[in-house]
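Query protein
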Amino acid sequence: MTALLPCSHLCDACTDDSAGVSTKVQKCVSRQKRRTQLALLTLKNSRQSLFVPELLVPDGWSTATLNQPRTLYKVVAAVDGRLVSIYDSVTQYKLGQTLHAKRGGAAWAPLHACYFAFPTMQQAASAVFPRNSQLAKAARMLIEVRCHGKGYLHRNDMWAMPHMTTVSVIGQVTEAAEVAIPAKYAGR
């Protein structure tokens, strides 16, 4: 018979093979099993924060998961016939192309690595960009995007998502945050 590991109090029942598996040994095994399950649960909970960053999310933001692609809207700069990020002037948005956060893998991407978009065209058109945006004075275009994945939601409905596909170009955004919306997009 295989020797059982003794419980922490090293009782005789745990190490005595002569009586076979007794009630005391069964109780001891049950105690060990509960301790192991508790230890695994504690480990799982401590490691879960690596994958669900609730403690690292800034005020006003919460984690959000979009399992199915959701239509959102974004304002980008139009530079030399290309659609690029107003903020970094590097990220390029091409029709049909899906962008993926450069960090995060299977877990939540850091907020700063995500792509930002809004649920309505008007919210996107009136978005305020950070002061250090590279193309703050460039011509602006409103685009329709589809986003999914483990991301974030700001209290004013701004989404930050790790996966974003450019679906269509809707129109130019004026300085007054107005968009000439084509009829096919009316009511969105």
